[in-house]
Amino acid sequence: MMKMSYRDVPKKYKIAAGVLLAVVVLGALFGRGKEAPQAAAAAASRPALTVRTAMLQGDQWSRTLSANGSILPWQEAIISAQMQGVRLAAIKVSIGDYVKQGDVLVTLDNFARIGSDPAAAQGRIVAPYDGVISAASANEGSMSQPGVELFRLIRNGRLEWRAELTADELMLLRRGMPVEITVGEGRVLKGAVRAISPSVDAKTRYGYALVSLSDSNGIIAGVYASGTFDISGGKRTLSSLPQSAVMRRGSTAYVLVVDAENRVHERAVKLGQRSGNRIEIKQGLKPDEKVVETGGPFLSEGDFVQVVK
Q1: Please, are residues 161 and 219 in contact by the beta-carbon 8 Å criterion?
Q2: What is the distance between the alpha carbons of residues 189 and 213, in angstroms, rounded to a whole number?
Q3: What is the mean predicted confidence (pLDDT) over 4-18?
Q4: Which CATH number goes with the domain that contains 151?
Q5: What residues pair up with 153 in beta bridges, in sequence order?
Q6: Does residue 34 lie within any of the structural domains?
Q7: What are residue 307's phi and psi, to 5 degrees?
Q8: Are residues 81 and 151 both part of a single domain?
């Protein structure tokens, strides 16, 4: 049997084969052209993220003012000898000791029975008040010097909080206003405003409020603490969102509102005070509008989302 080469194929068959190949190629290209828009449409309808939504919630909060400061002695007395050249024979107390008024702090040796201090005339230095010894620099065998500090005494062991505040903040305070102070690893102390400074420092622009503490047992003087003043005199009604729903861009706060087609849109809002993990929304959002609760930073304007309930 003879083999036939391409040159031996009749011309009409060559033309038919070429036409058939062209049809196949055009068909493939036409089919792909229809698939491309469909793929693009499918990608556009695919949700960018699965999210939970939140709505404004009515709450009743107290209006508060936050500040920082240190816990300090209410009054601290400096105790010294009134006579010169008297040897300190025995030191009876040390730092941290609680003493009663009249308790002996130091006994004196070879003292002169002169001067106006009756305790010293009896050869001893005593506590002028009840309180806690906060510092002790007296040494046995040393000689006394008038006015030289031997001890410091926190009167009645009583401490208070000194809060640093601006002039505008100070003008919101009143004596007796309730305060909560947080120290250490979350211990909360109750207090009340005792005094308010009538001026602020010209350099720092800060003044202070002194807050008496209902219980300062176990607290160390000098510890740094934060606190909140209840400046509302009661609770007020407001609207709030979870803080995770609110984002910032520069000085602007905004949320992502989810529309009826599950697309997100940025909306600027005006914020108020915070309480726990919630934040007051003062302006910019309607009560029935849904916003993205978490995941907002991963979304852009107009993104389609899947909402879970």
Answers
A1: no
A2: 7
A3: 51
A4: 2.40.50.100
A5: 77, 133
A6: no
A7: -95, 130
A8: yes
